[in-house]
Amino acid sequence: MIQDEAGLARQAALGEDSRHRFQGEELEEETLAREMAALANSAGGEIFLGLAEDGSMPGLSATSIARVNKTLARAARSLEPPLVVRTQNILLKSGRVVIVVEVPVSRRLVLDESGKVWVKVAAGRVAQGPDEAGAEFRDFSGRESPRTPELARDRDVCADTKASLSQNPETVSATRASVDESCEKNFSSFDPESSEGEEAREVYRLIANDKFVTVQELARQMDISKRTVNKRVALLKDLGAIIRRGSSRAGHWVCVPERAVQRGICAPEAAKAVDDAPKNR
């Protein structure tokens, strides 16, 4: 997520796209809800409240921030299922504020109050009826998702591949780990603000500082159990934020900063500082 006014200026210069939407101070709850649904049903993204469509940064006044937040909360709750979004207030030199709303990719189809499915097309959005979504697998409600044909095929490939592995023991040890990792990444969910998320972020930070760090050392530094560390490591692998190269004894960690930033595990500035150069032990 963007951290300061300079970052806002860079995004404003790039303009809107399928993952970034600018919205001035005048908000309509229905319009905001549809935009959040479209992002959640597509690749996720950010809405900048107080950043105008022309790239200027009028910001929000102090008196309007509470009203805007209430509108945002109502819009998120109006969707089915309701969305959980993260926000960050960025103070401008003018004393006004831009609210950055981070909308995650939804694992389930998100509908607006009228039952429509919104998806992003370039910087805009289009609506489809649930039966028009045309996906290959159905979400929890039985409706078809407009964003999931690829994931459905991935899921089927995973199942087929695992089945073939079970029938071919000679190849199991060489490919089982990579297949499991690839399959699990498609269905991950992550709340970086939870206690689990905080521990996962700390594990990532320590691994980024030392790619040879062991689970035992992580447990000691964090003062938590090895079992908990193993769970957080598994979560980070599931999210695609880290990869293990080699064996548990002779191997090392590889960080994937782009995925880490995308999942809220670390800030962009911290991701740039990740150094995967070998360290002497």
Q: What does this molecule look like?
A:
With about 280 residues, this protein is an alpha+beta fold. It folds into three domains: about 5-130, Methyltransferase, Cobalt-precorrin-4 Transmethylase, Domain 2 (2-Layer Sandwich), CATH 3.30.950; about 150-185; about 195-270, Winged helix-like DNA-binding domain superfamily/Winged helix DNA-binding domain (Arc Repressor Mutant, subunit A), CATH 1.10.10.10. About 45% of the residues lie in helices and about 15% in strands. The chain has helices at about 5-15, 30-40, 60-75, 150-165, 170-185, 195-210, 215-220, 225-240, 255-260, 270; strands spanning about 20-25, 45-50, 85-90, 95-105, 115-120, 125-130, 240-245, 250-255. The two termini are about 35 Å apart. Residues about 135-165, about 170-190 and about 275-280 have low confidence and may be disordered.
